Amino acid sequence: MTITLITGANKGIGYETARQLLAAGHVVYVGARDADRGEKAAAALGARFVQLDVTDDASVRDALRKIEEEEGRLDVLVNNAGILAEGPIDGPAALKAFDTNAVGIVRVTEAALPLLRGSSNPVVVNVSSSAGSFWAVTNPDRLESTLPLPLYSASKAAATMLTVQYAKAHPGIKFNAVEPGPTATDMTAAFGIGREPEASARVVVRLATLGADGPTGTFQDENGELPW
């Protein structure tokens, strides 16, 4: 069995990724900050629930400890939790954006590394965004160039760089960042854009199910590697 943890999996792309990986035979842990919502989501999916707030060190440690006690290892980690960080820009808003979208990846990944090393094919997927790509946001033909989301874009650029650096530091584990595509979720409702989460989740699932010879240190969307 493949043991998988997905953060922010009680809704949106995370929820649909969990559903698709369960269908592929994975044992999926739905990580969610809100216990009530997370438990309901896990029950609806037929998954397992673990309370996990990516901005809280103790919460992250407890979540990974639970998986270690129940499974003894972790094969796939999907760092999906994130926030849009729209609205007024100030110091606290910036700290919140980076704490969730970038530092959260560090917290969860560092706590998960000992369990990932117990896997025969460990994989980490960081859900990033082409809104954090210099190439995309300066290209007038791209939607990203029209989105006024400096904190989201900057924190997602950090998420992609973390992916590359983790891949270099841990060659035995595949680390890849993914742009899942514009998706209609509650996070993007104000922009009125995006497709159903099911389609975007397929992009995440492809990288979460890489074989032992799969790539590492890349930033990809559904069409392959992206410049950034």
Characterise this structure.
By secondary structure, the protein is an alpha/beta fold. The chain has a single domain, classed as Rossmann fold. The protein has 7 helices and 8 strands, in the order βαβαβαβαβααβαββ. It has helices spanning 12-23, 35-45, 57-71, 91-116, 134-137, 150-169, 197-208, and strands spanning 3-6, 27-32, 48-51, 76-79, 123-127, 174-178, 218-221, 224-225. The protein has an 8-stranded mixed β-sheet, sandwiched between helices. α3 runs parallel beside α4 and α4 runs parallel beside α6. The mean pLDDT is 93.
Write out the strand line-up for the largest beta sheet, numbering strands in chain order. Answer: 3-2-1-4-5-6-7-8
User: Sheet with the most strands?
Assistant: 8 strands, mixed
**What number is the mean pLDDT?**
93
The H-and-E topology, N to C, reads as EHEHEHEHEHHEHEE
Separate helix tally: 7
Percent strand equals: 5-15%
